[in-house]
Amino acid sequence: MIPIRAATTAQQVHDWLYRCVLRGDLLPGTRLSETEIAAQVNLSRQPVREAFIRLAADGLAEVLPQRGTYIGRISMRAVLSARFIREAVESDLARHVAATRPDLTAMAAELTVQERCDVEGDVPGFIESDDRFHRAMALAADQGAVWQDLERLKAQMNRLRHLSMRVFDRSQTIAQHRAVLTALQAGDADGAEDAIRTHLRQMLTELPQMAAAHPDYFTD
């Protein structure tokens, strides 16, 4: 588990644990100890207990009476639901951006970051850049609030991505991003929509493969 330098509230502990779960530092089935984490962050057990409850409310942990708190399994249904919503929303965003032709410098810059992270094997950095790429498209469409809504939906999807990006070819994702950006820069709405749909449907292939490889990590 990665230590945090300073934590004074249950929210800060929650945010730290939330990131650890999404990044795969805390795998499904891991038991969380109030005593150990409280000692690690130099807090009493009460804010840690509150953080566990919040994590459970996020669907990322299970609080089992008389047994303890465990990191929950990845919900395949939640992954597929978030992917479906993202495709519907982002295909419309892509069409809007292609039609309005805003500045796409931020999206282009993320491709460079992703290439570097791929070479260095920096999976967390790659995924953070991936998120910024999609967020930049939403901002280019003047729909930053829409991206915030999507962020709240895709916690389980991000857990899958941190697993799959360690296994699957990240250069394929970069190529898909480049196809999206090229179509947007050309003002090709149909091409941009097709490219973003192709990109987001990649998860339909990855999910069953990862579930087969790690059955204990997933639930329906």
Automatic annotation (TrEMBL):
The keyword DNA-binding applies. GO terms for molecular function: DNA binding; DNA-binding transcription factor activity. SMART domains: FCD, HTH_GNTR. Keywords: DNA-binding, Transcription, Transcription regulation. Residues 7-74 form the HTH gntR-type domain. Gene3D superfamilies: GntR ligand-binding domain-like (1.20.120.530), Winged helix-like DNA-binding domain superfamily/Winged helix DNA-binding domain (1.10.10.10). Transmembrane segments: none annotated. This is GntR family transcriptional regulator. It comes from Paracoccus haeundaensis.
